[in-house]
Amino acid sequence: MRVLVLNGPNLNLLGTREPDVYGDTTLEDLEGLIEGWGAGLGIETLFSQSNHEGELVDAIHRADGVDGLIINPGALTHTSRSIGDAISSVGLPAVEVHISNVRQREPWRAISLVGPSCVRTIFGRGIGGYQDALRHLQNRAATPFETVGYGPHSDNVGDIRRPDGEVAGLVVLIHGGLWRQEYERDSTETLAVDLTDRGYITWNIEYRRGRQGSWPAPAHDVVSAMDFIAREMPGVPTGIMGHSAGGHLGLWAAGRRTDDIRLFVGLAPITDLAAMARAGGVGSRDAQSLLDSGAPPALDPIDGRTLLVHDETDEIVPVSHSTRLSTGSRTEVVTGLGHFPVLDPKREHWPLVVAELGKALV
Ligand code: CA2
Hints:
By secondary structure, this protein is an alpha/beta fold.
């Protein structure tokens, strides 16, 4: 796969000014990093940067022989219809990336004239957003999927991937990201692709987060998404898999569907909001605001049908969130995996997860 990475006006200044907003990595270093991330995924990357709208349009027109685009149009994001038109005209999947959280800055930065021509917008994740964009382009190309609405809100959507042959079961995937707006379901896509290859229908869901997402909105959405898929695919043995904050939502939802859910898999799950809020580290303010809106402080496992996988050195969600539930669940404490590699099906914990799903979803 070949991907063209385009950066717009002023991004040549990266790393030289405003490091509090854009970090201290220069454009040259960033392009080197993206090249390495691409190589790790088997993606060849090409690069271009311009401060001129027409040159960006020309670069998009010239994007011959590439399979996808990643574009950070800089401030042209908020003004340029011609860049959006150029993307639509070449018909390539394009991911819009913003280093900063454009939805939490001046209101005009929240408006993108380019976004509607793109398959996804990634913002507020720092330069890591470019890596996520590469992974998203690869996952979109790997397996066809259908994005389906399950409710009235724009976040009430999910992606259904169906296996080619016999169906082994259905897995509902719930992404993490501390209930913040900038983290979306692209993080659980690699697992969805892997599980679909193994014969599972996957339902990788979005839910309300951030300003829209105080309790019970995210929980309500997860339950609605589960109701929706059960209506669409009645009788298919179902499991839930949640990462981090999605683990909290999944465990909560599984507890309300004990008749239907064959297995809950928590990947580095948050299971105790009160402990998270007390700890004072990453996510403690997010946990406190969820508690303040009425979320349950600490959750229980669903007896005999809970698998938790957690790295003992996880610095974002401490392993105690899983070990506190070791009675009534299978708790696998692993070493050297970290908080995000649990989302990588190439890592050493995955065969165990697949084996447990195989036993439970029959
Ligand atoms: O967050 C982003 O990536 C932006 O696309 C960056 C644009 C801004 O206009 C968008 O609203 C959001 C600006 C890039 C300016 O880059 C600089 C980098 C270092 C120092 C000064 C500017």
